[in-house]
Amino acid sequence: MRIPLALAGLTLLAACGSGQTDKDDADGTGNMTVELPAGPVPDATPTAAPANDSAQNDADGVANGRALLPTGWGPLRIGMSKAAVTDALGPDVNPGDANGPDPDQCEIYRPEGAPVGMMVMLIDGRLARITLSRGSDVKTSAGIGVGATAAAVRAAYGARVKSSPHAYLDSPGEYLTLWSTGGPQSPSGRGIRFEIDRDGRVQFIHAGGPAIEYVEGCA
User: Fold this and answer.
1) CA distance 106 to 166
2) Which domain CATH number covers 101?
3) pTM of the entire predicted model
4) Which residue, 32, 97, 140, 176, shows the most beta carbons closer than 10 Å to its own?
5) Are 43 and 89 in contact (CB under 8 A)?
6) Whole domain around residue 28: which residue ranges?
7) H/E run at residue 128
8) Cβ-contact 138, 153 below 8 angstroms
9) CB atoms within 10 A of CB 189
10) CA 212 – CA 215 distance, rounded (Å)
11) Do 152 and 201 belong to one domain?
């Protein structure tokens, strides 16, 4: 520890007035104690950086209900009744629109309180799928949203995501699908499908049960 010049001067004066002989000083037998002013000791330990900011952001998104998950989004849960969907986000914002071949069996619409670009699909009165389209700023828990590249989807999900040909577009159009539980043959299966357009970017994101593999609305 370095002693400031002013403090060193005080030390010298104290030594001169202590009555100790030069011999004592030479022998190192002086018994003077210098009390340094109390103060905090600087912490030399560097502050650790966050291990993974993106992982923390994903966790925050899930915790706050902002992320689209295979099981739902925010107050929506795949399998809930239409009444529960209405309680959560309100009724159809355009109730007069024809939104399915048979609304009693299958309907697609945007609830009044849903974010821009979000639609819901109900089959037999139960929430079967949530879809994100152009204008949506909602993302999955891995940070993938509409407009992301197919490469970004693969980088985020790795081997979990499976590619299949697009029903109407040539490559690079494709479907990238992953299942968190079950699969398309299981009513309890839950997954996410990314529709990739002719520019190699995500055009739609579907989350939910087997209905995420429907290519024409309710079929």
Assistant:
1) 23
2) 2.60.460
3) 0.71
4) 140
5) no
6) 1-40
7) strand 126-132
8) no
9) 19
10) 8
11) yes
Q: Write down the pLDDT at residue 44.
A: 43
Which strand (E) or helix (H) includes residue 27? helix 22-27
* Amino acid occupying residue 116: V
Short-list 68, 6, 88, 32, CA closest to 204: 68
DSSP assigned state of 51: S
Residue in this structure with the two tokens 């087997």, named with its chain if needed = 210
The confidence score (pLDDT) of residue 100 equals 57
Dihedral Cα 113, 118, 123, 129, nearest 10 deg: -130
d(CA 72, CA 80): 10
Q: Which residue has the tokens 């024809």?
A: 98
Q: Could you tell me which of 139, 171, 172, 169 has the C-alpha nearest to residue 156?
A: 139
Q: What is the pLDDT of residues 190-219, one digit of tens each?
A: 999 999 999 999 999 999 999 999 998 888
Q: How far is CA 99 from CA 109, 117, 218, in A?
A: 6, 15, 9
Residue in this structure with the two tokens 């398309």, named with its chain if needed? 184
